[in-house]
Structure prediction request, 416 residues.
Amino acid sequence: MKHILHEAFRSPKFVTGFVIFMAILALVVFYPLFVTDHPLAIIGQGTFFPPGIYVSVYDTTNAPQYTMMLPEAEGNRIGAKLGDVEREAMREWLIDFGIPRAEIDIDDTAKLMTLWDAYYDPALRFQGMTSARQKYFARLDASLEGLLVMEPRVIAVPNTETGAFEASQSIELTDFVNVNEVANVRVLPLGTDNFGRDMLTQLVSAIGTSLQIGLVAGTVATLIGLTLGLMAGYIGGLVDDVIMFFTNLFTAIPGIVLLILISYSIGQENRGAVTVAVVIGVTSWVWTTRAVRAQVISLRNRDHVNLSKLSGHSIFHIIFADILPYILSYVVMAFILQISSGILAEAGLSILGLGPKTTDVPTLGLMMRWAMIYSAHILNKWWAFFPVIVAIALISFSLNLMNTGLDQVFNPALRE
Prediction:
């Protein structure tokens, strides 16, 4: 065993896959120690908050304020609401209204805003303009309100005696706060999903759940395949015929069809993560059985096996002591591939709406389903689906790299 591990860690492919997989495991183990929120807790009243650092506006008004004279501050303030796309859109509307193109200078913010304030009418809808485009111009107009105003913002509070609002604080354009002195700050590296839930926290939990599903599914499939393959390969005869009959039967029926039928018959409320994993394992043992059977057939007439037979050892002793150690390396590689297949199978089932129930724990497949249902790919909310795709790809890539590296170690014909 020590020699095998030494050879495995000399394989660049195995080491690369192992490092990636362990990094994923470390994220799953240590992240919850620092962020203890429930992965399905709704923290945002809205959908698809973009990635970033969120600061409590209420707390910023009470935080210590500092005056900073930054020359680029005004340009940043204007550019945040009036970028190149917005300027082109304003020119498009003004041209449709009838203003000559030569009179519209989109680089002159003051002149452009003067024309816009003078002529824009949200009720106007020009020929060929869609309703969605008209609403876009209305939202653009609302966002530009007070863009060039240089007066301070005034905060008013009600008088406890009269009930009238009275100015209590003014905020100048040069006022800044230190984010470390704001009471409530939340970092959302991946924003939120369609329900307003922290995507990163949800993703880490989903990776852990999907790995558990893959582990359970891989264990079930490997144990079934190994047991049937050993029996069919060594005992042969009627036992081999019966096992191969069912193996061929399951081979003829696509595995995804069996998964869909069984998952649908179980029902949404009864489909927990472990249940789905067992279903995946029960339907994906076929190729392991066939492969193990072929390996055993090539070993059952070897000299050491015949010697064990002559010694009067039982069938179970011969299988587990004289045959299994010789195919154990193949079983380990099959187990790794079954884990990867189990994770991918769960993702496929969940996208179809037949995965684990949505109220328990998130999985990578469920996150993809939620993103698709709420049109994240159409709305270009990439943070709702792209990190999930990357996570699935990295897990599968790392497991397959480890399997390829082990294959090079155990198979002398593949060694470089």
Q: What stands out?
A: The chain has three domains: 2-43+194-414, 55-69+150-185, 83-143. The radius of gyration is 32 Å.
